[in-house]
Amino acid sequence: MPRRIEDELEAWRDAALLRKLREIESRDGATIRYAGRALIDFSSNDYLGLAGAPFLKEAAKQAIDAEGVGSAASRLVCGTRSPHLQLEEKLAAFKEAEAALSFSSGYAASVGIVTALAGKKDVVILDKLAHASLVDGARMSGAAVRVFPHNNLEKLESHLQWAAREHPEARVLVVTESVFSMDGDRAPLAALVELKERFGAMLLVDEAHALGVIGRQGRGLADREGVTGRVDVQMGTLSKALGVSGGYVCGSRALIDFLINRARSFVYSTAPAPALAAAASAALDFLQTAEGEERRKKLWQNIRVLAEGLPPGAAPARIQSAIIPVILGDEGVALAAANRLYEHGFYVPAIRYPTVARGSARLRVTLSAAHEEEEIRRFTTALCMVAGEGEK
Ligand SMILES: Cc1ncc(COP(=O)(O)O)c(C=O)c1O
Predict the structure, then answer these.
(1) Could you report the per-residue pLDDT of 208-264, keeping only the tens digit for each?
(2) Does the Cβ of 183 fall within 6 Å of ligand 1?
(3) Is residue 84 annotated as a catalytic residue, yes or no?
(4) If you count DSSP H runs as helices and E runs as strands, how many of each does the chain have, helices first?
(5) pLDDT of 151-183, one tens digit each?
(6) Which of 70, 169, 174, 252 is deepest in the core (most CB within 10 A)?
(7) Inter-CA distances, 314 with 40, 43, 68, 363, Å
(8) Is residue 185 lining ligand 1, measured as CB closer than 6 Å?
(9) Given phi > 0 = left and psi -120 to 50 = alpha, else beta, which region is 276?
(10) Beta-strand relationship, 361-366 and 350-351
């Protein structure tokens, strides 16, 4: 008998893995309204609190008036509009690269870049915790894929040796995130750069969760580590600290020209709305102002306040970003903890398989510059109480 989708749904429900969409009535800074209640949100990637910023709305509105809403076709088919080109110029200057290209989402950027750079004769080597979009790109590319344990340079080196031995003609692409989306820790970028250079491989770094948060004016971890010019493919998204949506890649002129021709998610997809590009440009400008600097400082102050109040043992030893995983293990326990926090007025997602490995279900707590310190203190008090209940 064919497998029924209803049975699969039932099995997921029984295993506490089923997700459902929840309609949020409104979002204002770090406060959301859901089911008629105001909740403090610790779930978003809106690290600088820009998603609802009046100046971003204004930039988008002006672009709608000037450019209309839709983009009408792919940029290669019906011509490219100035907001996309302006955004790309700004991105390239900010990331100190020769050129940049924008995509409709970070997901589309990952898949498009990896499948363009690697084909059947090539090798992709991924960190075990690399984002699903990068994994999907690697799978779709048809390349030989190897995975190294999270941040394990020795194992990466042995994969690079294997690639040099078994696939001497291949293009070898090493893929990692700079700040890991579910664990909040950082990749050892300087060491990764040394290693890939020794083997003549290319390095792709996804800065999705570092842009706007780490480095000079929020340029990212490669900037913080002083290796920007040595990362071949600097990608990320405009959907997190920048508060808009869309993906991007920065690199050499040749890389960008290659992707314009070969990244299928760019070539065969309608360009993102010009208004989104205009808003992302405004967000990028904002990062480089004194006010942008203030927001980033506030975010890091909020991260420190949260770190001080976390339940002992539940949080990582070193907090390295705005993402703090509170690992609870069992999927049901994580779900129950999220529900209890909801009762206390806090919105925090329980992250479960397949987003993270089985048995490592967690609360993924994220901070924003939009949080007030008092809200964070109330949250950590509730979190300690809920974590204590789980131990009984
Ligand atoms: C590391 C990483 N890369 C890529 C993406 C995809 O970006 P987007 O949400 O813009 O599609 C995400 C998040 O969703 C992410 O966390």
Answers:
(1) 999 999 999 999 999 999 999 999 999 999 999 999 999 999 999 999 999 999 999
(2) no
(3) no
(4) 15, 14
(5) 999 999 999 999 999 999 999 999 999 999 999
(6) 174
(7) 21, 18, 49, 10
(8) no
(9) alpha
(10) antiparallel
